[in-house]
Structures are given as C-alpha cells and as structure tokens.
Amino acid sequence: MQKTVDLRSDTVTQPTAAMRAAMFDAPLGDDVFGDDPSVNALQEKVAAMLGFEAALFMPTGTQSNLCGLMAHCQRGDEYLVGQSAHTYRYEGGGAAVLGSIQPQPLAQNASGQMALEDIANAIKPDDCHFAQTRLLCLENTWNGHPMPLEYLDGATRLAKDKGLAVHLDGARLFNAAAAAVQPGESVAASALRITSYFDSVSVCFSKGLGAPVGSALCGSKAFIARAHRVRKMAGGGMRQSGILAAAASFALDNHLERLAQDHAMAQRLAKGLGNIAGLQVRSAQTNIVFVDVADGKGPALLAYLKAHGVLATGLIGLRFVTHLDVDAQGIDHAAACVRAFFDEASAAQSAPTLRGAAVY
Ligand SMILES: *Cc1c(COP(=O)(O)O)cnc(C)c1O
C-alpha cells in the first residue's frame, strides 16, 4: 500500500535513525549556564560556515527572527520588509507587539523582490515625524524562489549606503544555496556567498535539513550578545538543548548536499503536473511547487488528494513541498492522483447520466 505522501511542508520530516543516534550520543550541559558542549559546537559550526563571528541556537525561526529584529532595532524604530514576508505576515506581529518596532511593508514582485526604488523611497528622513528606519529585512528563499545574487547585492548595498542594517530570514537559506551552486562548489560555500551580503542571518534546521527542532541566528559578537538577552526574555533560554543541537549539527554535516534531490523531486512533480487542463504550475525552482487551480476547484482537489493519501496545503493555489521523507514513487503517486481528479471531473461533466451529480 502507498504510504501517505505528506507534501504540506518540509517541516514534517522525521529524524533519521542516524540523526537520532547522534542525538542519543550528544554530550549535554545546561545551556543557560553556557555549558552545553553540543550547543556550543553547533553555534561555532554554523557561525563559521556562514561567515559570522557568533551564532545563537533558537527553538524556532520565529524566535530567531524576533531576536534578530530586536537586536537591530529599538522601540520606535522601523524595518523595511516585504508585504508577504514571513517576518511581517506570519510571525504574529511579534516585532511590533514585543519589540515596539514598526514594520514598513513594501510590495513584492512575483519572485518576492521589492523594487530598489521602493526601498529607497521608504527610508525616512531624520525628522521627528517619522519612525527611524534602521533595518532592511530580506527572505531567501521566498515561497521557494531563490533571490538572484545581483538583487541581494543591489538591495543590501542600497540599504548599507543609507546606514541601514540588513537581516536575512534564511529559513530555507540552504535551499537557495543548493539552487545556486556553481560547478564543483559545496552547498555550504554557496550559502556563504549569499550570507556575505548580510549583517545577520536566521536559518532553520527543522525544514529541509530534517532536524526535529531548531534555528540559529548569526551575526557579530555584539549583535549576538544583544540577541541573547532578547532570547532569554522571550523564554528561549533552554537547558540540555544539546540533544536538539546535535540533530542540527548532524543535518549540517549530512543533509546539505542532498537538498538537490528535493529540488529534483519538485521538478519531477512539476513535470508530472504538466498539460492538465484546469491546472497551471506556477513555479518549482527549489523544493516548493505552486499550482493554480481553475474554477475554484482547489479545496475539492485538496480533499480528493487527502482521500488518496496525498497531503498538500492551499486554496486557490495549492502548495506541494518536497523533503527527505518523499521519494520518486510518492511524487509519481501524487501527480497521478492530481491527474485522476481532473480526469474524473471532466468525465463527470461530459457523461449525461452524471449531469447534476457532485463533481469534485
Ligand atoms: C518556517 C519559516 C520561518 C520560521 O518558522 P518557525 O515555524 O517559527 O520555525 C521563518 N521564515 C520563513 C520564511 C519560514 O519559511
């Protein structure tokens, strides 16, 4: 029997046996005292890999971004951010609620980029009427889109020229890095090329990297010291968290190069969903495939898929995310189910005996 193909998110992955063994064997201490060797080792590893002085292990990406925003901005400061960026739209308004930091959301194009002109125009002059614009926050990948390096260069250069700091929400940084590897280069080297434009970066271990929990915030020593205070305040001071850090560390050692397989699976799915009337594949550049579903059939398609052991998310557009727990067989099953849905729907429409019957 086909096991459930869970394409709702890359957060659904289970730790592998080897990752669990690394967690089991991890030396532990009390990280609030700074004595957890596994947490310390992870922080050093990720900081070095991404070219920063220091890093801080976090329970979630949301907390990591929040600590980053609050370490960059004071009460009454402002950050520039995409209208549909995670740090604006999907983090419960934390920067405003907990940090008294005003977001200035800006329109994004279909690839998630804010126009440089809009960024420049949104930076407030030094005048008591305005919040003080302190920070530009970018996201890579955004909705599965890797940001071109020229864009990162242009946007961060503009911000720095105006005295702003630049933060990257890199929850899926390594997917962006895997998509941008040059021949013979490692994913880590590609990631370093991306992070070199930023003052701080947040990365998630709990998504495509396959760890059960955890993120890291990277930056200068002084920045991380400020973020450390915020993390404590936000309730993120953890104790024997080395058991989690060991999983993240294992993922950095073993799960970076394999991200290319997830991207290949997304391509395979996109191909399998080609030439279906009523369905349009919008993008599949990394591990996320978006499709537009015509005639409001999205919810019915989602329910049909669920009944056939395929899980996805969405409404008008559906989202399928590939990860280390889905293989080619699962992808082919998912594509076949989508096709069967549209075949059955069109058969029901053309068969006179079924006219008026419920169509999925
Ligand atoms: C998942 C994600 C986060 C963090 O999410 P948590 O669930 O809090 O770990 C932040 N930014 C982006 C773009 C994400 O996809």
Describe the structure.
The protein is of the alpha/beta class. It has 2 domains: 15-254, Aspartate Aminotransferase, domain 2, CATH 3.40.640.10; 258-347, Aspartate Aminotransferase, domain 1 (Alpha-Beta Complex). The chain is built from 14 helices and 13 strands. The strands form 3 sheets. A 7-stranded mixed β-sheet has the order 2-8-7-6-5-3-4, sandwiched between helices. Strands 9-10-13-12 form a 4-stranded antiparallel β-sheet, with helices on one face. A two-stranded parallel sheet has the order 1-11. Helix 1 (17-25) crosses helix 11 (242-254), helix 3 (61-72) packs across helix 10 and helix 8 packs across helix 9. The protein is globular and about 65 Å long. The two termini are 24 Å apart. The structure holds pyridoxal-5'-phosphate.
Separation of the first and last Cα atoms: 24 Å
What is the level 1 CATH name of the largest domain? Alpha Beta
Mean model confidence by pLDDT:
95
Portion of residues in beta strands equals: 15-25%
Question: What is the annotated CATH architecture of the largest domain?
Answer: 3-Layer(aba) Sandwich
Uncertain parts: 352-360
- Main-sheet strand order equals 2-8-7-6-5-3-4
* CATH superfamily caption of the largest domain: Type I PLP-dependent aspartate aminotransferase-like (Major domain)
**Please, how many domains?**
2
Largest β-sheet summary: 7 strands, mixed
Encode the helix/strand succession as letters.
EHHEHEHHEHEHEHHEEHHHEEHEEEH
* Structural class based on helices, strands and sheet pairing: alpha/beta
CATH topology of the largest domain: Aspartate Aminotransferase, domain 2
Total helices: the number is: 14
List ligands, each type once: pyridoxal-5'-phosphate
What is the global morphology? globular
Strands, total number: 13
Radius of gyration: 22 Å
